[in-house]
């Protein structure tokens, strides 16, 4: 059993005791690494958020286990950040990614009537601050490509009458890159980076649960 499969099984078990009607975070590593429950505890906030992000996931994989990552929790709101790994693969087009994303949203809407879905803008990257072994990947997953993909995510949100949200302002330097001090290796975000966007994402969470 690989790492992803182990996480899926762990979540499948955990889902048996979740409280329905709460908030779910779904996506790949950028969602999995969001220390949302640690930050909630620090702020004395009792909002229930289940993080079902799985590192390494591409859009197709989330679609395949959507029951475990979203549907079984019967949430009132879902925050999704999926597709950055698709964007790192030169053989996957943005339209192919959006096709999968569209199916993900449609399936959630069909299974959980009235659910609020928040489609998150992809975070920026920083090629100049990247570790050497990350630079090839960031030639494919450039900020230009991320901007183009975000425009398509926005259209997808509008098509489904759901919300597109961009909480990236505090992550960006003057050149629109992920701030060097907020990144681990040019791509992933460290805890300070997540702290910088905590208030912004929580404003949307509060809106969702109000």
Protein architecture, described:
The protein has 210 residues and is α/β, with parallel strands linked by helices. The protein has helices at 3-14, 29-32, 36-42, 59-64, 66-69, 84-87, 94-111, 135-140, 143-159, 191-209, and strands spanning 23-27, 49-53, 77-81, 116-120, 163-165. A five-stranded parallel sheet has the order 2-1-3-4-5, sandwiched between helices. Helix 7 runs parallel beside helix 9 (143-159). The longest helix has 19 residues, at 191-209. The mean pLDDT is 97.
Largest sheet: 5 strands, parallel
Rg over C-alpha atoms, rounded to the nearest angstrom: 16 Å
Morphology call: globular
Overall number of strands: 5
Number of helices: 10
Order of helices and strands: HEHHEHHEHHEHHEH
Average pLDDT confidence is 97
Contiguous uncertain segments of 5+ residues = none
Percent of residues in β-strands? 5-15%
Structural class given helices, strands, pairing?
Answer: alpha/beta
Q: Which sequence of strands runs across the widest sheet?
A: 2-1-3-4-5
| N-to-C CA distance | 40 Å
């Amino acid at each position: 059993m690989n790492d992803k499969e182990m996480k899926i099984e762990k979540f499948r078990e955990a889902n048996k005791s979740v409280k329905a009607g709460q908030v779910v975070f779904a996506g790949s590593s950028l969602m999995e690494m969001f220390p949302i429950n640690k930050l909630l505890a620090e702020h004395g906030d009792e909002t229930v958020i289940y993080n079902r992000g799985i590192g390494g996931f591409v859009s197709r994989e989330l679609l395949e286990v959507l029951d475990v990552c979203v549907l079984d929790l019967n949430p009132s709101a879902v925050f999704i950040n999926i597709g950055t790994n698709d964007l790192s693969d030169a053989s996957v087009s943005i339209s192919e990614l959006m096709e999968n994303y569209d199916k993900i949203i449609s399936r959630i809407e069909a299974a959980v009537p009235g659910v609020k879905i928040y489609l998150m803008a992809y975070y920026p990257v920083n090629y100049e601050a990247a570790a050497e072994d990350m630079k090839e990947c960031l030639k494919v997953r450039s900020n230009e490509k991320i901007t183009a993909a975000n425009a398509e995510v926005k259209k997808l949100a509008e098509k489904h009458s759901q919300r597109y949200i961009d909480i990236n302002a505090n992550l960006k330097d003057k050149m629109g890159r992920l701030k060097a001090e907020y990144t681990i290796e040019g791509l992933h975000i460290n805890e300070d980076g997540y702290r910088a966007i905590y208030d912004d994402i929580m404003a949307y969470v509060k809106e969702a649960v109000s």
